[in-house]
Amino acid sequence: MPRLLFTVSAAALIAVFSAAASAQTPLEKSTPDPKPPVSAEPAPVTPADPFGAEVTLEPRTFIYMKGTATWETAFETIVDAFKTITDYMDKQKLTASDKPLAIYTQTDETGFQYQVGIPVAEAPKNPPKGDLAVAKSPGGKMLQFVHRGSYDAMDTTYEAITNYLDEKRLESEDMFIEEYVTDPVKMPEDKLVVNVYVPLK
């Protein structure tokens, strides 16, 4: 599937993500939530975490779901997509060959377009139908950053990425990729570890 073109720079794209994520407000609930509140503070970055490391990603075959979402429901949308893909893979007896991906193909202040997928060793013999499809994930030269903590706290990470790009005077493609090192379905949200890849021009 061809990637969508953009009319803004990647730095501006990341800035939009940051502004939108920081403007999120919790959804109202009719009953008290018995779970403790999730901290929006990012976990400390460890000295071993890459921040602006140059890497080359190889395209990977992945089963994905595309759609649109608002920032208020971003994490829930991504998790639901992973669940749908996992259910399909379980029925087809397919196993993941790499970490789950969320590819942001277009963003604005209110929401975003996405491709959420799970890499597999090879395309299934019976391709999925309906909401799911098979394609190659983006590859090429990219900068790698690491986020630790809740999804709501990722605006802090993206602000740091924007500052890094500005300081280094680097130009990047108008998209970004999140690779979930920890399972976003099973892991508590405030324990996330996410590789963020910014493709360079």
Structure description:
This protein is an alpha+beta fold. It has a single domain (10-21, 48-199), classed as Multidrug-efflux Transporter 1 Regulator Bmrr, Chain A, CATH 3.20.80. Helix content is 23%, strand content 29%. The protein is built from three helices and eight strands; from the N terminus they run H-E-E-H-E-E-E-E-H-E-E. It has helices at residues 10-22, 74-91, 154-168; strands at 51-57, 61-70, 101-107, 111-119, 132-136, 140-148, 176-180, 193-199. Strands 1-6-8-7-3-4-2-5 form an eight-stranded antiparallel sheet. A hairpin with a 3-residue loop joins strand 3 and strand 4 (111-119). Mean pLDDT is 82; it is low at 1-13 and 21-40.
SSE blueprint:
Layout: H1 10-22, E1 51-57, E2 61-70, H2 74-91, E3 101-107, E4 111-119, E5 132-136, E6 140-148, H3 154-168, E7 176-180, E8 193-199
Antiparallel strand pairs: 1-6, 2-4, 2-5, 3-4, 3-7, 6-8, 7-8
Q: Structural class of the secondary structure composition?
A: alpha+beta
Report low-confidence residues grouped into runs of 5 or more: 1-13, 21-40
Oligomeric status? single chain
- Topology pattern, helix = H, strand = E: HEEHEEEEHEE
- Proportion in β-strands: 25-35%
Q: Kindly report the spatial arrangement of strands forming the biggest sheet.
A: 1-6-8-7-3-4-2-5
Shape: globular
Helix content: 10-25%
**Number of alpha- plus pi-helical segments:** 3
**Tally of distinct domains:** 1
CATH architecture: Alpha-Beta Barrel
CATH class reads: Alpha Beta
Q: What is the assigned CATH homologous superfamily?
A: Regulatory factor, effector binding domain
- How many beta strands in the DSSP annotation? 8
Distance between the termini: 20 Å
CATH topology: Multidrug-efflux Transporter 1 Regulator Bmrr, Chain A
Indicate the radius of gyration in whole angstroms.
17 Å
- Overall mean pLDDT stands at 82
